[in-house]
Amino acid sequence: MPKQEWLLIYWQAMNRGAGPYPHHAWWQIGWINDYLMAEAELRSNGQMKFPRGFVAPKVGPHQSYGFAAGTINGEQANLIVNEDLVKVDNPTIDYILAESEKKDKLFVGLLNNRAQATDFQVTVKGKLMKKQLPAVGLEVMTIEK
Fold it and tell me: Which CATH number describes the domain made up of 24-144?
């Protein structure tokens, strides 16, 4: 089979959503998540840290997160996923969301993945803020609920 045909078949399958094992997109999500969590812990000098679970080899080797509370600046926090809470206008800025154990605070870990300082806008719960992060910088925003 010519390379172009193989690529076309591969991308057509990917565009139809999650497919049968092994689905490469899910594997990529796993290792990207591993990278973001490790970067957050490293850049914060351990102040943003979540426990890692067993390596899940079924769809690419990556670690599991979210099964237990971690810590952000010494406070217990649980990872959350909510696409409606945060919007960032620059794709070089990644974010990690967590909620305090008491559910009274939202933590937004912002990571700059460029080797240059980066200006961007972040909207959290409908409130727009202008920000700048240094090269490969991290900022943890704490928002009272």
Answer: 2.60.40
Q: Which residue has the tokens 């959290």?
A: 124
Structure tokens at 100: 């305090």
Per DSSP, helices labelled H in the chain are: 3-15, 24-43
Length reported for the chain: 145
Per-residue pLDDT of the chain (145 residues; tens, 9 = 90+): 444 454 455 556 655 665 554 555 666 777 788 889 999 999 999 999 999 877 655 555 667 788 899 999 999 999 998 988 999 999 999 999 999 999 999 999 999 999 999 999 999 999 999 999 999 999 999 999 8
Cis geometry, peptide bond prior to residue 57 (ω within 30 degrees of 0): no
Amino acid (one-letter) located at 132: Q
